Structure formats: structure tokens, C-alpha cells
Recover the amino acids of this structure.
């Protein structure tokens, strides 16, 4: 499954009895999943950003229904201002001091 692009199954398609091996694989792959309300996700995402030294996360929302996926993106957008932290300030100082960011 690794490296293969798959379509997200509908809830009905995904509703099957998982084996213990299936559940272990799901648990192993979902360690980086952040779930919760805006305050919870903001705190956990801030910790990830601080721990990795990055200021630019890539967020995916593996949710089947478009309206639910859109709402998730709206919630993430609502916390974006809370995610500015030390890594972002360091990058701003470097750029302001004549340094550059290689975004390409």
C-alpha cells in the first residue's frame, strides 16, 4: 500500500471488520494525525511545528464528504494566526538580515 495512491473509500465501503493486523497497520500509520477542536489541534500542531523547526505545515483532510472536508479546512484556517511561533520569527529575521529562503 505504501507509495500507492488510493481513493478514499466511502463510509459504507470502509465499513468492514478489521483484523488485528489491519488495526495495527492503521495505528502505525496514524501517529501523525491531529484530531480535535480548534484549540486542541492548534496546541498539537504548534508542538509539531516547534519540534520540527518548521513554520509551514502541509495539512491533508482524509474526509469523504466534501462539506465535511471544507469545514475541516475552515477550522484549520481559523487557527492559522495562532501558529506563528519561534521558527517563523527566526525565518523572518534571517530574511530581514539579508538572508533568503529557498522556496523553490
Amino acid at each position: 500500500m505504501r507509495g500507492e495512491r488510493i481513493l478514499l473509500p466511502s463510509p459504507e465501503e470502509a465499513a468492514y471488520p478489521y483484523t488485528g493486523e489491519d488495526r495495527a497497520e492503521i495505528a502505525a500509520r496514524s501517529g501523525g494525525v491531529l484530531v480535535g477542536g480548534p484549540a486542541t489541534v492548534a496546541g498539537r500542531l504548534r508542538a509539531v511545528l516547534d519540534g520540527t523547526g518548521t513554520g509551514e505545515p502541509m495539512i491533508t483532510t482524509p474526509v469523504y464528504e466534501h462539506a465535511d472536508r471544507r469545514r475541516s479546512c475552515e477550522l484549520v484556517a481559523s487557527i492559522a494566526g495562532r501558529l506563528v511561533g519561534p521558527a517563523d520569527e527566526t525565518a523572518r529575521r534571517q530574511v530581514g538580515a539579508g538572508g533568503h529562503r529557498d522556496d523553490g
Summary: The mean pLDDT is 81. The CA atoms of residues 49 and 58 lie 11 Å apart.
